Amino acid sequence: MERRTIGAAALTVGAVGLGCMPMSWAYSSSRQRGEESVRAVHRALDLGSTLLDTADMYGPFTNELLVGRVLKERRQDAFVSTKVGLLVGEQHIVANGRPGYVKRACDASLRRLQTDVIDLYQLHRADPEIPVEETWGAMAELVRAGKVRALGLCAMGARGGRRFGTRLHDATIRQLQRVQQVFPVSAVQAELSVWSPEALEALLPWCEARGIGFLAGMPLGNGFLSGTLTPGQGFEPDDVRARHPRFTAEMMAANQPIVAGLRRVAARHGDGVTPAQVALAWVLAQGRHVVALPGTKQERWVTENAGAAGVRLTTDDLAEVAELPGARGSWD
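^ thats the sequence. predicted structure below, dont judge the formating
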């Protein structure tokens, strides 16, 4: 697989990574099977999808334990990324950016992942009660201690929380400007897909100008852009899509022209190319430091997603995708 370089430390990873969250968090729990997920991680590494993206809150904790089972055997094949800063309660999630907690959380993640170093340690969310510089400083100490190789930041702010007259990622950029004064940012993770291109407005250009890697989360639009979901199919209550404004039966039907457009482009690239691969190839075409992180728990989707690294979209392809209608949700 094509390799891409992220951050000032020149870390190299496969252009398509693996988002491990669906294996134990946020998606249909009845379909979460540990052994199947372990096979999926092994398959990703076999295909060169070296970046494994997890977090201590996924599960919580069980996702790191699952990834650790693979790392115990294949640490040299993997680039492991995990996150800190969020705590999961009974019915809520809270931020904790206290320096002492960050250091304890890192040690716990290292134990669960069965490794002595985390390649990329990301701040999941900043704690509003703690200056982000203090949290980032504690993370920087972990780099100096040899427990972490590089630091990253996850974009903040929900779509609905945007203030009038501001861009979606303005708050994240301000946060990045602050922590960059403390220790270099190697990567930023944010949603980027054909139906959620907002990061192209300001966040991705900001990263590109500084040689910071961009980890594109949800590049398949929570599975919608794969073309495998049916309007009105329904989702289990614990599935995030059951509450997502783009996954009502009405909105899934209204957004079908986006999938149809991806199918048209895929057809020009041969029988074996899928809408999902076109959607991922579009993400990869947005910049040389962009890495796509599709999440899955099944080997067959891992294989399909990895194949997207070999799909080269033409200028006409990109123009056609650019002309697709914008995604609609219940807020529209």
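The first helix runs from residue 34 to 46.
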